[in-house]
Design a protein that fits this description.
Pfam families: Acetyltransf_3. GO terms for molecular function: transferase activity. It is an enzyme of class 2 (transferase). Keywords: Transferase. There is one protein chain. With about 190 residues, this protein is an alpha+beta fold. It has one domain (about 15-185): Gcn5-related N-acetyltransferase (GNAT) (Aminopeptidase, 3-Layer(aba) Sandwich), CATH 3.40.630.30. The chain is about 30% helix and about 30% strand. The protein is built from 6 helices and 7 strands. It has helices at about 25-30, 35-40, 50-60, 110-125, 140-150, 180-185; strands at about 15, 70-75, 80-90, 95-100, 130-135, 155-165, 165-175. A 7-stranded mixed sheet has the order 1-2-3-4-5-7-6, with helices on both faces. A hairpin with a 4-residue loop joins strand 3 and strand 4 (about 95-100). Helix 1 crosses helix 3. The chain is globular and about 45 Å long. The N and C termini lie close together (about 5 Å).
Amino acid sequence: MTVGASFWTGERVRLRGIEPEDWQAFMEFDADTGHQRSVDVLHPPRSAERYHAWAAEQSVAAPDGDDFRLAVEALDTGDVVGSLATDGTDPRSGRFRYGIGIVGEHQRRGYASDAVVLLLRYMFGERRYHKCEAGIHAFNDASLALHRRLGFVEEGRLRDHEFFAGRHHDLVLMGMTAPEFAARHPFGKL
């Protein structure tokens, strides 16, 4: 890393805190049913004021240990193109989970892979975690391919685990250890 460069800036994206003015981007993300289902579940419609309040809350929320949510901002446009979050952080065992969502028209531009590498570099190289876990819907071929390219390994499948769109869906469990990450994505120099 060069002097003056931000740890949180990659080749295509910058990870940053959610700002109050990001409310409209998140409201637009949730207008896409496919996006909602790919990152969580389908929610009832919310008012613009509720999105505004949520973004304002996120902008001042302190992280809960190593559980946090960040906006993914495209370097080429400055647009918020998605978000990522950690949860289930367990410093004792050295494990954490994460999830990422890049909204439809911004997918397949390298934003997700860049954002995930930045996150994993932080969690493995700065916070001393040993393993990252991700749960991916079995029908989400693009996300499964992304995780395999990044070096995640399929560790199992929870059959009929999630229910939406009138039926149950499998959840594929994927994981990557810090040494596996470092072999593909070296930590670099100070």
